[in-house]
Amino acid sequence: MKPLLVVDGYNVIGAWERAAKEGWSFEESRERLATLLEEYAAFHGCEVVLVFDGTRSERLVRTHEQRGGVEIVFTRHGEIADQYIERLCDGQPRFREVRVATNDNVEQTVVLGRGATRLPARELLREMAKALAVQRDQIARGPVKSGMLISRLPQAQREALEKMRRGE
Fold this sequence. Notes:
- By secondary structure, the protein is of the alpha/beta class.
- Helix content is 49%, strand content 17%.
- It contains 7 helices and 6 strands.
- It has helices at residues 9-15, 17-21, 26-44, 81-90, 105-113, 121-141, 155-166; strands at 4-8, 47-52, 63-67, 70-74, 98-101, 117-119.
- A 6-stranded mixed sheet has the order 3-4-2-1-5-6.
- α5 (105-113) links the parallel β5 (98-101) and β6 (117-119).
């Protein structure tokens, strides 16, 4: 079972200095965060649930949207993201690795009590930036010349293996 990362969306956006500095709207910040989390999920091989509060909205029902490895949840009117996150943590098997990204101290304490680990919002933002930098570096190096594993070995090792294959 893949590890699970649960993200309190507005809490992370509130800690995102770049979003504030560049004056992104909530809609643009939500979109950019979702996109970064898609890349993060693919890079780390984990499932991500991105939760946004619906307390001040007029949503009568909770909505779920799947984008790549990210499930985006908007809670219904009157339901805060913390409540949804707590129930989600309660419903996970004890052996599953669950991390919750939030800066809310009370929420961090509650999820710790429910078997999850806490991840401060700024740390998640750092992890996402690092993963993006590694991906860009891999892309910049270009494709592997051949799909064969031996093509990735240094020349001296290839020659030694070829001698072994021939029985020399």
